[in-house]
Amino acid sequence: MIEMLMVVAIIGILVAVVLPQFSKMKENQILKNTVGDITSVLHTAQAQSLASVNSSEYGVHFQSDKMILFKGKVFSSNAVDNKTTNITSPAVISNVTINGVSGTSGDIYFNRPSGTPSNSGVNTVTISTSSYSKIITISPTGTVSVN
Fold first, then answer.
1. Of 87, 136, 92, 144, nearest in space to 115 by CA
2. What CATH number does residue 39 fall under?
């Protein structure tokens, strides 16, 4: 009986140590997936602008829980061409800095046919969870990088 209690105690200790690590690993994976989604949407907007799809520019509107690929230079929430990509919780877009102005939302579009961003400064999007954060930077030439 004592041996059985020892085995149960050891298993309990192992579970107590390992379980929090799984939670952190899940948050880290969600953050990585979110970074991939954001860079993919930015590259899609840039590629569609470079290709002059429908003779238009394309951009991305950021909100804390989603990003929206839009057609044109100005974001309209009720446009039928909008494509929404939701961000998986617990990740959120915690800061958007476009042309030196920070906030929890913002828009950036890419000029056609050059594919350069609409704002000449360095633009950033910060994604965070309770344990991790990443900064996505859009350079004046349109290059997207992750720190």
1. 144
2. 3.55.40.10
Q: Which of 49, 77, 79 is nearest to 63 (CA)?
A: 77
**Is the pLDDT assigned to residue 5 strictly greater than 80?**
yes
Give which of 50, 38, 123, 130 is closest to 85, Cα–Cα. Answer: 38
**Per-residue confidence (pLDDT) for residue 24, from 0 to 100:** 85
**Hey, how many other C-beta atoms are within 10 angstroms of the C-beta on 21?**
9
pLDDT at residue 58, rounded to an integer:
96
Q: Which two tokens stand for residue 92?
A: 């959120």
DSSP bridge pairs for 108:
60
Greater confidence (129 vs 57) lies with 57
Domain that holds residue 53: 2-146
Q: Give the Cβ contact number of residue 99 at 10 Å.
A: 13
- According to DSSP, the residues that pair with 92 across neighbouring strands are 128
Residue for token digits 């950036």? 108
The number of folded domains in the chain is 1
Residue 98 — very low, low, confident or very high, per pLDDT cuts 50/70/90?
confident
